C-alpha cells in the first residue's frame, strides 16, 4: 500500500483513543475548557454514568460564532498566543479535545459571548452540521451523547455505568478541589450529587469533597521556599484510609496523579502510619512555570519537575512541620547498634509449620520504614501525639513464670498507653498492644470465616454511614457476600448505608471506619473478584477495626490475657502489616547495653 495522508476524521478518531478513553476523560476536558474560559460557575449533568450523556454548562467568556467551527478543528486553540508551550497557564493548550470528542459522539456546542447572540453547532461522529442560532444565557454548553457508539472496539472496553460514574465523580471532585473560587453543581440521572458554592473557604471545600470529619482531624500545611509554595490540608495520622484514592495533589491548579508526589506523602507519614494505610489530604503546590513541564501526557495528569528532589523535600518537610506543630513528633532514638540486640520470633512455640496455616498469612513483606530491624529501621521511634507515660500496678508484682510455659512472660506495666512491658524468665519483652491484638483478631476471624461460623451481633441501634454514591454502589453489590461474613448492611438512600449487625468478635469496633475501608477494598478488588477469594483482605480490614487501639489503658489482667493468647496463636509474632508485634531483649544483652559484659 502506498503512503497517504489520513483523512481528518480518522486522525481525530485516532487522537480520541489517547485523549478520550472513557466518559470521565471527556468530562475532564470539558470542565477544563470551562475553567480556562474564566467560568465562575460550572454545572455538570450526567446520564448513565456519562455513557448516555454528558453536559457541561459554564458562564465563561464563550466562543464567537465565527470561531465555533474552528474550535472543532484539530490543533486549533486560543490558548497559546505566543507559541510558548513552556509558559502555558491554562489547563488546555493542545487543541485536540473538542475535535477528538466530536469525532466519536453526537456532539453539540452552544455558545454565547457577552454582548452577542447564541449559536449552536452540532457534529455527528465527526460530521459537522451548519451553525444555527440558539437562545441561551451567556457562556458555553457542550453536550456529548452516545460516546463511542460508532466505535464498537472502544465501547467494548467501557465498564458498567456504575464504574464510569465513579470515575466521572472523581474527576469533578479533583477539579472542584483545584478551584475553590468556582461554583460546581453535579447531577447524575436527575439527582443532585454535589453543590459547591463559589468562593468557598479551602477547608470547607476540602471537607465537603473528601470527608466532613476531616474538618476536626487535620493540620494546615503552609511552606514557601525559593519561589515554590506548598499549602493545603492533611489528615492527622490517626485519620487514615485503606487506599490513596483520597489524596488530592494539585500542581499550579492542575490535578495530577504523580508517583513522585505520592511517594513524598508516604515518606512524610512513614513514622506515623502503617504502610498499608494512607493519609487523606489536599496539597496545593505552586511552582514557577519554567520549573514544571505539563506536556508529558496527552491527558495531562502527569507532570515533570525540573528539580524533583527539591519538590519531594518540600512536601516531606511541609507535612512534617505541620504534623510536628500538632504534636506528632519524631524523636531520634538511641544508637542503632544497641537496638540490634532486640530479638523477635525466637520462641519455638510461635512458629507453626506452614502447612498448618488455615490459609496463607500474607503479612506484607515489611520493607520501607518497618522492615528488617525490630524497631523502626530508620533510627526513629514514634510517639503518636501523646506524652509518654508508664504505669505499674499491684497485679504486676507476680513471680516470673517459667519460660517454657510463658515465653512472653508476665506483664509489668504499660508504656505510652501503647506498649506492654513484660518480664520473661530470659529477658525483657515489649509488646505493641494494637498490633498484637489485631493479629489475634485476624487469626480468629480467618478461622471463623473458613469454618463459616462467624457469629454476628445485632447493633442496638442500626448505624447509618454516609459514603459517596460509588462506594455505596460497591457495597450494595456485595451485601449478600458481606452478610456471610457477619456484616449485615443495606443501602440507605443514595449516599448512605445502614449497618444492622457486625461480626461479634469485633466487639465495639469503629463500624463507620470499617465500612469506609471495606468500600476502599472493594474498589481495589474491582467487580470481577469474589470476596470469598480475597477473604484475607476482608479479614485484615475487619481485624484492624476490631482491635484494641494504641492509646488505650489496659489492666494487668488484660495485658496478661493478651500475652497468653499470643503464645498460642500462630503467626502472632507479626502484625497484619508485617511489623513485629513483640520484641525481646535477653538478660545478657541488657548487661551488654550497660557495659557489664
Ligand atoms: P484546548 O483547550 O487545548 O485549546 P480544545 O479542543 O479543548 O483545545 O478547545 C478548543 C478551543 O475551543 C479552545 O482553545 C477554546 O478557544 C474554545 N473552547 C472550548 N471550550 C470552551 C468553553 N467552554 N468556553 C470558551 N471557549 C471554549
Ligand atoms: Mg481543552
Could you explain the architecture of this structure?
By secondary structure, this protein is α+β, with helices and mostly antiparallel strands. It has 3 domains: 8-196, Heat Shock Protein 90 (2-Layer Sandwich); 202-325, Ribosomal Protein S5, domain 2, CATH 3.30.230.10; 327-337 and 365-597, MutL, C-terminal domain, regulatory subdomain (Ribosomal Protein S8, Chain: A, domain 1), CATH 3.30.1370.100. The protein has 17 helices and 27 strands. The protein has an 8-stranded mixed sheet with strand order 5-4-3-6-2-1-7-8, with helices on one face. Strands 9-10-15-12-13 form a 5-stranded mixed sheet, with helices on both faces. The chain has a 5-stranded antiparallel sheet with strand order 20-21-22-23-27. Helix 8 runs parallel beside helix 9. The protein is elongated and about 95 Å long. The model is unreliable at 329-336 and 345-389 (pLDDT under 50). Residues 29, 33-34, 37, 58, 60-63, 71, 77-79, 92-98, 140 line the site of adenosine-5'-diphosphate.
CA radius of gyration is 28 Å
Instruction: Specify the CATH homologous superfamily of the largest domain.
Output: MutL, C-terminal domain, regulatory subdomain
**Continuous helix count:** 17
The count of β-strands is 27
- In terms of quaternary structure, the protein is single chain
Backbone structural class: alpha+beta
Task: Give the end-to-end Cα distance, rounded to a whole number of Å.
Answer: 86 Å
State the low-pLDDT regions, or none.
Answer: 329-336, 345-389
Whole-number count of domains: 3
CATH architectural name of the largest domain: 2-Layer Sandwich
Query: What bound compounds does this protein have?
Result: adenosine-5'-diphosphate, magnesium ion
CATH fold group of the largest domain: Ribosomal Protein S8, Chain: A, domain 1
Q: What is the level 1 CATH name of the largest domain?
A: Alpha Beta
Described by strand count, sense and barrel closure, the largest sheet is: 8 strands, mixed
Overall pLDDT confidence: 81
Portion in strands: 15-25%
Overall spatial form:
elongated
The strand line-up of the biggest sheet is 5-4-3-6-2-1-7-8
- Approximately how much helix is present in the residues? 25-40%
Amino acid at each position: 500500500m502506498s503512503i497517504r495522508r489520513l483523512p481528518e476524521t480518522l486522525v481525530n478518531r485516532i487522537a480520541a483513543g489517547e485523549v478520550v478513553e472513557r466518559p470521565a476523560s471527556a468530562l475532564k476536558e470539558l470542565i477544563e475548557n470551562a475553567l480556562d474560559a474564566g467560568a465562575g460557575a460550572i454545572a455538570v449533568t450526567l446520564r448513565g454514568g456519562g455513557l448516555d450523556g454528558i453536559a457541561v454548562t459554564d458562564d465563561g467568556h464563550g466562543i464567537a460564532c465565527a470561531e465555533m467551527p474552528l474550535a472543532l478543528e484539530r490543533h486549533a486553540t486560543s490558548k497559546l498566543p505566543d507559541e510558548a508551550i513552556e509558559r502555558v497557564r491554562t489547563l488546555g493548550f493542545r487543541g485536540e479535545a473538542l475535535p477528538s470528542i466530536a469525532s466519536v459522539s453526537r456532539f453539540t456546542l452552544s455558545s454565547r459571548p457577552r454582548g452577542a447572540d447564541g449559536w449552536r453547532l452540532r457534529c455527528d461522529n465527526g460530521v459537522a452540521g451548519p451553525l444555527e442560532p440558539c437562545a441561551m444565557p451567556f457562556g458555553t454548553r457542550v453536550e456529548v451523547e452516545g460516546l463511542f457508539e460508532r466505535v464498537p472496539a472502544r465501547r467494548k472496553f467501557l465498564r458498567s455505568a456504575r464504574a464510569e460514574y465513579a470515575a466521572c465523580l472523581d474527576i469533578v471532585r479533583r477539579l472542584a478541589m483545584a478551584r475553590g473560587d468556582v461554583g460546581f453543581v453535579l447531577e447524575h440521572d436527575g439527582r443532585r450529587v454535589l453543590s459547591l458554592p463559589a468562593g468557598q473557604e479551602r477547608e470547607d471545600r476540602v471537607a465537603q469533597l473528601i470527608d466532613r470529619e476531616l474538618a476536626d482531624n487535620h493540620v494546615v500545611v503552609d511552606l514557601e521556599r525559593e519561589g515554590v509554595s506548598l499549602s493545603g490540608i492533611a489528615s492527622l495520622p490517626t485519620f487514615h484510609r485503606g487506599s490513596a484514592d483520597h489524596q488530592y495533589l494539585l500542581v499550579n491548579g492542575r490535578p495530577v496523579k504523580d508517583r513522585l508526589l505520592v511517594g513524598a506523602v508516604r515518606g512524610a507519614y512513614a513514622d506515623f502510619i502503617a504502610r498499608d494505610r494512607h493519609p487523606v489530604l489536599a496539597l496545593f503546590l505552586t511552582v514557577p512555570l519554567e520549573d514544571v513541564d505539563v506536556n508529558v501526557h496527552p491527558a495531562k495528569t502527569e507532570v515533570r519537575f525540573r528539580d524533583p528532589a527539591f519538590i519531594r523535600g518540600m512536601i516531606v518537610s511541609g507535612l512534617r512541620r505541620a504534623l510536628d506543630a500538632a504534636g506528632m513528633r519524631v524523636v531520634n532514638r538511641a544508637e542503632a547498634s544497641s537496638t540490634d540486640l532486640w530479638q523477635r520470633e525466637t520462641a519455638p512455640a510461635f512458629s507453626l509449620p506452614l502447612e498448618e496455616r488455615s490459609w496463607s498469612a500474607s503479612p506484607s513483606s515489611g520493607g520501607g520504614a518497618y522492615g528488617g530491624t525490630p524497631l523502626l529501621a530508620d533510627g526513629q521511634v514514634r510517639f503518636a501525639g501523646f506524652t509518654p507515660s508508664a504505669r505499674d500496678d499491684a497485679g504486676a508484682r507476680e513471680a516470673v513464670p517459667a519460660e517454657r510455659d510463658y515465653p512472653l512472660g508476665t506483664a509489668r506495666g504499660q508504656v505510652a498507653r501503647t506498649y506492654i512491658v513484660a518480664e520473661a524468665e530470659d529477658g525483657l519483652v515489649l509488646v505493641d498492644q494494637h498490633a498484637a491484638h489485631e493479629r489475634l483478631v485476624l487469626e480468629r476471624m480467618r478461622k471463623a470465616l473458613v469454618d463459616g461460623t462467624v457469629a454476628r451481633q445485632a447493633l442496638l441501634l442500626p448505624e447509618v454511614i454516609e459514603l459517596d454514591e460509588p462506594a455505596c454502589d460497591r457495597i450494595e453489590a456485595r451485601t449478600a457476600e458481606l452478610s456471610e461474613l457477619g456484616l449485615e448492611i443495606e443501602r440507605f438512600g443514595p449516599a448512605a448505608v445502614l449497618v444492622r449487625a457486625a461480626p461479634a468478635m469485633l466487639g465495639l469496633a469503629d463500624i463507620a471506619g470499617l465500612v469506609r475501608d471495606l468500600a476502599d477494598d472493594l474498589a481495589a478488588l474491582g467487580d470481577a473478584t469474589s470476596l470469598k477469594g480475597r477473604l484475607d483482605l476482608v479479614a485484615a480490614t475487619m481485624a484492624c477495626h476490631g482491635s484494641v487501639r494504641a492509646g488505650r489503658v489496659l489492666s494487668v489482667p488484660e495485658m496478661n490475657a493478651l500475652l497468653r493468647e499470643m503464645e498460642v496463636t500462630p503467626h502472632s509474632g507479626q502484625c497484619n502489616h508485617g511489623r513485629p508485634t513483640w520484641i525481646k531483649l535477653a538478660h545478657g544483652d541488657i548487661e551488654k547495653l550497660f557495659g557489664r559484659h
